[in-house]
Amino acid sequence: MTAEELRAAIARQFGRSLHIRTLDTGSCAVCEQEIRLLAAPHYDLHRLGFFFTPAPRHADLLLVTGPMIRAFEVAARKTYDAMPGPKVVVATGACALGGVYPEDPFTHGTVDSVLPVDVWIPGCPPGPLALLHGLGVAVGRLAEKVRDLPFTAPSYPERDGGDS
Amino acid sequence: MTLWFVRGIRRGVVTTRYPARPDETARYLPTPPAFRPGTLTREIADGLAAVCPGRALRRDGGVLVYDVGACTACGRCAAEAPHAVTGSGEFELATTDRSVLIKRIPLRGEAL
Amino acid sequence: MTSLYFLYAAGAAWLAAMLTSLLAARTVGGLRACCALSALGGAAAAVGGGWSLLYGDTPVVSPGGATLTGGPLQLQATSLAGVFTALLGVVAVAIALYAPRYHQPSTGTSLYLAACNLALLACLAVLAAGGMVTFLIAWETMSLACYLLILRHPRSAPVARGAFWFLALSEAGFLLVVAAFVMLSSKTGATSLALIAARAASVPGGWRAAAYLLALIGFGFKAGLVPLHVWLPEAHPVAPADGSAFLSGVVVKMGVYGIALFAFRLAPPDGAWPGLVTMGAGAVTAAIGILYAMAERDIKRFLAYSTIENAGIIVTAFGAAMIFRAYDQRALWAFLLIAGIYHVANHGCYKTLLFLEAGVVEHATGTRDMDRLGGLIHRLPRSAVIAFAGTLGIAALPPLNGFVSEWLIFQGLFQGFRTGSHLTGILIVLAAGTLGLTGGLAVYAFVRGFGIPYLGMPRTRSAAGASEKEQPVLGPGLLAVLCVALAVGAPVMLFALARAAHTITGVTLGPLLLPGKLTVLPAHADFAAFSPTYLAVFLVCALAVPLLIYLAGRPRARSVQVPVWDGGIVSFKPRMQYSAMTFSAPTRVTFDALYRPSVSVTRPSDDDPAGRSGPVHYEAQVTPVFWRYLYRPAVRALEWLADLVRPVQSGDVNLYLLYVFAVILLAYLLGAV
Known about the structure:
The complex is a heterotrimer of chains A (164), B (112) and C (673). Chain A has helices spanning 3-14, 30-37, 73-82, 93-96, 128-148; strands spanning 18-24, 50-52, 61-65, 88-92, 119-121. With 164 residues, chain A is an alpha/beta fold. A five-stranded parallel beta sheet of chain A has the order 2-1-3-4-5. In chain A, helix 1 (3-14) packs across helix 5 (128-148). By secondary structure, chain B is α+β, with helices and mostly antiparallel strands. Chain B has helices spanning 2-11, 42-51, 76-80, and strands at 33-35, 57-60, 63-67, 85-87, 102-106. The termini of chain B are far apart. Chain C contains 28 helices and four strands. In chain C, strand 1 (67-68) and strand 2 form a beta hairpin. Chain C is globular and about 100 Å long. The mean pLDDT of chain C is 90. Chains A and B meet through helix 1, strand 5 and helix 5 of A and loops of B.
């Protein structure tokens, strides 16, 4: 998806409002700093229609960092369940993608073991530009999910969501 | 208050135009490595796999399995074999398919 | 006369019920028979009350020329007493349906039910009293019967205390009531209430005002006006549930009836200031009542303070009616009288319901403490639905009856500008503002009063083990249906009340109140309009819309049921929920100056030289303002006076003979002169 199509897709699907819930499953918090930098004036994700929300009930997108430690599994599952569909899970950072920490008695090692991940964003940490690109991919995936819901008619051309 | 306003007008818009237009600062970002297939031998591949702290590199027969997702861009593989490793310059790596991030790089002289 | 015959029937039924109870209530069959007779009497009283509402006062009747000590027995069924009598009947029916499942047959129960029926009979006699003597004797009988009612379990100290304070304050009020009646009777030279009302002009203004003030305070003891209310939170928790329901639903209304009697029927005082005093007393009572209710954990004490609040609202309405009459706004006078009486009926219904449900909860879980309950909506589903109807009513939420009567009262108060006097208008607005505050706090209080015990998770094992088997449902259920009927059928009720207002005040309110079939106007066509029936229908239809959307969308959009979002806590414990006191904490902090709580916090690390930590003990207690600053000094003054007079009773026979001699001498001297 090109950038223009991305903006148009977000505008169409979510009326300039896609809410992101961040979830830290045991990361070193550098990925969180990069995510927080997205709201800074240089990157400004609000101009694209993304917003952060603390309430999973209001969220469309779950942005997960960290290697999914076992102690957090129940809370992660509850957060995911509390989000109303359609929703996407975006795993961010090398820890969440299975690198750095192997599976052991304390961690799962990868977010995919507990939550169904839709989009993977590699990086350690992924810079804000990589995050913006990943969020764009996630919007495309979310658009696909909305299209597949049984009571919406497709209002945009068919397109497979992959990286550009 | 006036000073802030004036300084802001002089500096102009600082927000990046990404993703509508490419960002100028993107070239300075640390990015995962890219491997030159013609330079990799079994020994070099094993050395790279041993030195990678994030378990992103391993040798599977005649192929170097490189997991971009697990790479932390620490640079140790580049320090170990500088002729075989370059910076990729790619940061737009997000994907919906995990297997796209696992690259299999053939080693020199191996049958496919 | 027909209404009087119905009241005779009711009286006879209750007398029979009393005898049955004394003779046979030690068996289940006797208990049921007694309750059946009681219910029959209630039905007769309800019909009789309604009849007198519609068809006006009967003449004063002295059945068989009977005389009581001090004067003839005079009975009259009046329009003013009509709603009160109907309410008495309805409450009697509800209690009679409730009692068989609530009480176990025993000697105590038989005595208790006998006292209950005697109290019903006495209340009926108060309402049907046509003469001063009848009224006073019936009033005193009612007080004594209620005293016996509260003393169901006399060996317990709180019960004895509650009953004692009820009786003490009843007697204090009775003295003042007797004084008020005697003042009027001596000036008019009559004991029949109708004659006193007819000759009211012959009582000088000062005497009328004095009699009214005495009556306000005297009946205020019974009605629960602050600071005369202290018996209510003591007596209600300790009486059995149907006894508390009777006290709140009927006996407090007797006090209100007495105030209405002196304000509107017997010699009403001149000027606006008696109305202002009444309205002020009512407004203050309402605010203080609900504020103290917020600080209570015991369900019955909470409901008792809420009764005080509602009595305050009714008295405010009556006070404002008096003010409007003084300024010759006759339509508003009649309108506020009607609004107050309507609120009497509504409050009687839902307060009785709530007390009966509190009794069900107490029997099912063994505790009245809100902080030990929770989740009862799953375990006592029918009781929860019925209690919810009562809660909606008392919180004055549309479309139920509490909303209708409070709307009427507010609309009457908002028209204070029609008096033409700036000061009076401002004072009426202040009273309306105070009632607004109490209305908001009442919603808050009853969200707490319903939510903490019924919703959420059970906080203790006894709450988790509650069961609805063998719990009475029919009595409270009838009252819940009546709450809805009083709301949706408000035009019918207002039509009947308008007829009664015409009898009492002479004002024809018909077109100013009910212009069409279903719309209600507040006594003036240019102010506001409201249709309770349409509102109820509209709300039901509005609720149907999302339901229809859900049903239409259901096959295509499957819903996923997941647990409530609790922040991702691994296991949610009942102790993590709101407790009753934390829910009301914002109010208690805001009104800190009223509550003046005494807080004590003890930590084990305070005493431990090593500073080791452990459980922290926190105790907060609301300062009992009225006890400490009014009643205890009064009791101490009384004791001091008694100490002063004690030497008179020395026990020395010779001194007593001297007294006899002195009095005889005095009598001869006075006779000679």
